[in-house]
Amino acid sequence: MKTRVLHYATGRDDKVIATYKDVTFINRHVGWYVDPKDERHENRDNIAIVERVDGICFVAEFLSRNAAFDKEHLAAVAAEAFNLRAAMQERIAQKQWIPLTYVAVYEALGWNARPLKEHRAYMRALRTAETRERQRLLCERERRRRQAEERERLEALLRAEKAFRDGDFIASEFFIGLCGKYGIKIHPRTLGTLRKQIAQVSPTRIQCKNSYVRTPSADGCSGLIDRLTKELQ
Question: pLDDT of 31-65, one tens digit each?
């Protein structure tokens, strides 16, 4: 039957409007309507659960069709509508969120809606504080992760430096890092060669990524190896 129902305005969470909906009532206190309806898949319909309190109807929640008609849940909804004030007091005591439609029905019935509004403001502030704390913890976790990575990078660079001093091979990425550490500038073309073609470097040899080993040539790497060797002496 066509019934005037209080519900959220489309796309808004801060405004409640009243329009006529085709509500099917299950009992004196509870009804439902489809919003929206899925023409192809009925089980995907969004079901609006409607409570009726002293002739005022409002949307209490939206559920999938599969969950909307659970008998125990509908009985709980009916019990809430039967004694709405006590139900709201319990929600407030348990720090549960109260939708704006409940505030609207209080006002429509001439009841004092101030406790509900204050609770919504409190819960909103609490959620904001929790969100900020989560963000702070995430930032702190990210900061610690970056610090750990930097420590690992520096330790690996120190190991590579010792290996290079001892005449051993080090990965090209560590060779680049050591050049940066000691202020040795690398020409962009040489940097590209080191990253794309060179696997490892020692004071006397270069290992390419295709696995063969050669002595440094005039491709730019030779001068860098000589300069780094002198810096480490």
Answer: 999 986 666 666 678 899 999 999 999 999 999 88
Helix (H) or strand (E) holding 201: strand 198-201
DSSP string across the chain:
-EEEEEEEPTT-SS-EEEEEEEPEESSSSEEEEESS--SS-GGGPEEEEEEEETTEEEEEEEEEHHHHT-HHHHHHHHHHHHTHHHHHHHHHHTT----HHHHHHHHHHT---HHHHHHHHHHHHHHHHHHHHHHHHHHHHHHHHHHHHHHHHHHHHHHHHHHHHTT--EEHHHHHHHHHHTT----HHHHHHHHHTEEEE-SS-EEETTS-EE---TTTHHHHHHHHHHHT-
Residue with tokens 């990425």: 173
pTM over 0.85: no
- Residues whose CB is less than 8 angstroms from the CB of residue 177 and which lie 6 or more positions away in sequence, other chains included: 153, 157, 160
pLDDT, one tens digit per residue, over 104-128 is 999 999 999 999 999 999 999 999 9
Residue 195's φ and ψ, nearest 5 degrees, are: -75, -35
